[in-house]
Design a protein that fits this description.
Blueprint (H helix, E strand, L loop, with lengths): L15 E5 H11 L12 H15 L4 E5 L7 H5 L12 H4 L2 H10 L4 E2 L6 H14 L4 E4 L13 E5 L4 E3 L1 H8 L6 H8 L14 H11 L2 H6 L7 H12 L2 H9 L11 H4 L6 H11 L2 H10 L7 H7 L5 E3 L4 E3 L17 E4 L3 H12 L3 E8 L9 E9 L2 E6 L11 H12 L5 E4 L2 H10 L7 E4 H8 L8 H9 L7 H4 L13 H28 L3 H21 L2 E2 L1 H26 L8 H11 L18 H9 L3 H20 L16 E3 L9 E3 L11 H7 L2 E2 L5 E7 L2 H10 L2 H8 L4 H9 L9 H15 L4 H8 L3 H14 L1 H17 L1 E3 L5 E3 L16 H33 L4 E6 L2 E6 L4 H13 L10 E6 L6 E2 L2
Parallel strand pairs: 1-2, 1-4, 2-3, 4-5, 9-12, 10-13, 13-14
Antiparallel strand pairs: 5-6, 7-8, 10-11, 11-12, 15-18, 16-17, 19-23, 19-24, 20-21, 22-23, 24-25
Helix pairs in contact: 1-2, 2-5, 2-15, 8-9, 8-12, 14-15, 19-24, 20-23, 21-23, 24-37, 25-28, 27-28, 30-36, 30-37, 32-33, 34-35, 35-36, 36-37, 37-38
Amino acid sequence: MDVPTTPANAPTPAQVYLLDTHGLVFQMFHGIPQMNAPDGRPTNSVFGVTRSLLDLYERGAEYLMAVFDCHEPTFREKLYPEYKAHRPPPPDDLILQEPMIHAVLDAMRVPILKQPGYEADDVIATVATAGAAKGLVVAMCTSDKDCRQLLSPTVRIQNLRKGVVLDEAGLKADWGIAPEQVVDFQTLVGDSVDNVPGVAGCGPKTAAKWLQQFGTLGNILKNSDYIGGPKLREAVKEAHANGALALSKKLVELDKNVPMTLDWEGWKRRGFDLPRLLDLFQEYGFRSFANRARHIMGEKAGSAQVKAVGSPSPGKFDLLGAIDGNPQPTPEPPPPAIEWKGDYKLVDTPETFAAFLEQLKQQSRFCFDLETTGLEPMRADIVGIAFSWKAEEAYYLPVRGPEGDAKLDPVATLAALKPLFENPHVHKVNQNIKYDLLVLQANGVDLKGIAGDSMIAHYLLHAGERSHGLDELTKSIFQHENIAIKDLIGVGKKQITMDQVPTAKVCAYAGEDADAAWRLAETLEPHLEKIGARKLYDELEIPLIDVLAEMEFHGVLLDQPFLQTLSTEMAGQLAALETKAHEQAGKEFNLASPKQLREILFDEMQLPTQKRTGTTGEASTDQESLEVLAAMGHALPQTLMEHRGIAKLKGTYVDALPALVNPRTGRLHTSFNQTVAATGRLSSSDPNLQNIPMRTEQGKRIRKAFVPPPGWSILSADYSQIELRLLAHFCNDEDLKKAFAEDQDIHTAVAARVFNTPAENVTSEQRRMAKTVNFGILYGMSAMGLSIRLGITRQQAAKFIDDYFARYPTVLAYQDGVIAKARRDGYVATILGRRRFFNPTALRSKSSYRQRNQAEREAINMEIQGSAADLMKKAMLNVSAAMRKAKLQSKLLLSVHDELVFEAPPEEVSPLAKLVRAEMVNAMALGVPLRVDVSAGPNWLDGEDVE
């Protein structure tokens, strides 16, 4: 750990700052969320390095040098070819940023130091030692622990991300040794990141203990008969005898005499090439950095250049207000700011209600919005209803409220409105109208005539955006801020329900919401015509609201005793895994503590750091990092992954699902969301049933808890390999199409072609590799990702991907074509015309498959997965209509990825299976046949095939 200095012992400001630039670039890349320049290039690392440079300049650094490695073998690699052999190559998006970082360094006139045959640390050691000899205070800006051997009263290590300094006292507190003992310490411990051998089984605590006792490695070797246990004692002697210790010492000791010119006069800080630097900031989208640069140079903000660089641009403001990245092409320009006017009338007497009802009956289309006591539609009570059918006007009908406020009778009011609500020829719109539909259904009103939803309309226009909420849309489109719900009901422990708010305040709030939703629908829907999405809106997304609401309203039964049993089993498994982890670590620790995990994995066990966290810059212990470490063969990360997987299942599903059962219905009611996934896929929440893992036996067993009513069956209908079939349809590959037409096992067929062997000779391992690549290709899986999934080297994974594309060139040509079309048109469209817009410059023109950036992967994914979403939604509509026509008792319960789940009485299992399969198979005509696997059984897991 780094020990921060305190005001009491604050060090003398450094005069020399030596940047381990390669390490800093990596640290920023993994520590800062993805960012993109206006032209689409990744910039997170450039941003972080630039911010650090400006910080150092503002501190008045006299010398600031950027030290780099040379891209050629060093003396260490010549000495030991395995040195750093385990390090993976840098990510493609990091490589793209290196020229940009060099451009910033050049514009800031930062000297770049490097020396062929030596590492950056050797250059740092040479310059730091020479600087200290000149009487200068030196700060080595690095996270590399090798540099700890250079610490002295005037040389220290500074972590730029965390803002902490490590000096001799900090080293003593952390490792328990002095700087002159660091080389011996690292020689004993070794380094798995750099592939330094060390002594097997000797961790940091043991090495520190020996050095505290004997002072040097030489003295430890002289007393090797008296150290540690027999096994460790022998390991030390063997490492000494076979030369491993001597080799390790040569590898970890930095060279303080690199043959280089020490140009102190030429290295002195110089002024920026300000025009060039400002051009770069504008090019990269770093708007706020421009004023910082001028401030450092002593210029006044407010010049013409300030305005040019710092003025708003069409893109989105992001990350501390500092960048302007990823502008999304929008089908409609925002209208000019207008004065928001609203006349919202309170209808709270029988007389005013009668007059209002006569007006409402004259409308062929209106917006209505319910105010309720809560967010769960199956449990909420109606407080009032707001209506609008003309901009700037709305009416509010209170049926509940504080004592003394005038209200309408709730039963009589709803009864009077019921004929209009249930008239399919009177069109209704609102924002998130499914919620209102469910509340009305719970109150005996069967809403018909849903014709629009502003949330869905905006989503179809801007599928890549995260928020489609009413308040956000009103502000962005009309420049008006709606009354905040917290202004009415408060927050936290003092929060009240809407029926406790004075009716006059609710009228202003509800009227404004209804007015806003009406205006938004009227504004957004015409733009759907412009992008060819009106049919998708009117004939797919809006009709689907009824189907989703019916599924949510009906809910699904849970076998709660089974979940209780499963919870007990999992508790036992977690305890066993915890004990196993403690044994593997050699000590007890809290498996849920990232701090303790870092200490054990990266300090004590010296496992290689995979990436660093965005907030603290500490080594990450997230799932991705553990997967990489486990793939390297390390046992503890594998145990930790197993423990996390079971703990997540237990907490998220096994223990949580019973608490979500509605006491009124005795069923679990999830919510299906149409406006979350950019591809058009449905998602679910409260609870999220889309993410129950099916790869593990534990995950599969959770499905066993989903059951039908007594005597009935759960029937599941699942599209078989729909995305691969869509890939074959789009790329028109004859071999893929033939495999599907002949109902071959597609993974075996691909393996046979890639490995150039008959299908009957394909091994299970070859099929597994083909299956992983088949699905990975759809999402732009890298060679590194494939190597982790398959447990093979990156080189083997890269070769397999290359072999795949050599055998299936039509797939690569198809993907390149999608990107080229997206670059030309600015969007990718699905089979039914659903569009997702992209900044064309974010889609690089010269990238290979392995260099695909996120925008390119999303573009390819959109056409395949988005078309799968279109197909699934179309199938749901057709199945629902066919079930109503056949007057079946069976109910559609869930839609999970490519699967529909039903409950059916015994006499309907066979006809339902036949109906569902027919409607799903014929939902869309493709260049390959669709296949649907249907099973039925006593729960969602234990089904048998239904022919």
